[in-house]
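Translate structure to sequence.
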């Protein structure tokens, strides 16, 4: 193991929206290669992580969390990603973005609108009142969750943490998405051929 020094977490120079870095290994396949891949089975380039925590950049001392990069089309064995013990409770290694909650918010708001619309015609309909209550609570719950997540990420970013990390796997290509520049640079150094996009 290299005895490279690990720097303490540093807050981003400009608070606010953090830049996102994408480290890509491999290329999107050409049609011929894609056809071959379909015959020979799904594969993506081999890669390695260092010992730097993806969240705070500190030495992980070998600690990891399992990342499930499977998609609805491909089952992929879990990938251990480096994260230090201190960051484990808040670091979010997942390819489910918070945006995944948006359709649920839209659906529950649509439910509220529909219930109100039909209640004008049938104000005695208890089902519609129930629907209004459930959809209103759901909308408020999701909105509160969005707000809490947003605030949490902002506070963590101020303390030099990059809590969100994603891995996207395609045929012949793997990408790592992070707001942690140090972590992205380390991936490029460790994996010949990796590109910082
Ligand atoms: Zn950490
Ligand atoms: Zn952290």
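Result:
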């Amino acid at each position: 193991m290299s005895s490279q020094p690990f720097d303490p977490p540093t807050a981003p120079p400009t608070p606010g929206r953090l830049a996102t870095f994408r480290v890509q290994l491999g290329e999107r396949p050409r049609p011929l290669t894609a056809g071959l891949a379909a015959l020979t089975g799904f594969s993506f380039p081999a890669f390695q992580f260092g010992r730097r925590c993806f969240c705070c950049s500190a030495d992980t001392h070998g600690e990891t969390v399992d990342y499930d990069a499977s998609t609805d089309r491909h089952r992929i064995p879990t990938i251990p990603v480096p994260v230090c013990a201190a960051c484990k409770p808040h670091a979010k290694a997942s390819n489910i973005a918070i945006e995944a909650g948006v359709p649920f918010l839209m659906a529950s708001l649509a439910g509220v609108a529909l219930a109100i619309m039909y209640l004008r015609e049938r104000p005695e309909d208890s089902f519609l009142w129930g629907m209004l209550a459930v959809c209103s609570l759901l909308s408020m719950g999701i909105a509160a969750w969005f707000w809490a997540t947003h605030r949490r990420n902002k506070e963590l970013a101020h303390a030099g943490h990059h809590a969100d990390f994603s891995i996207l796997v395609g045929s012949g290509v793997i990408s790592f998405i992070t707001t942690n520049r140090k972590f992205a640079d380390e991936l490029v150094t460790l994996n010949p051929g990796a590109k910082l996009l």
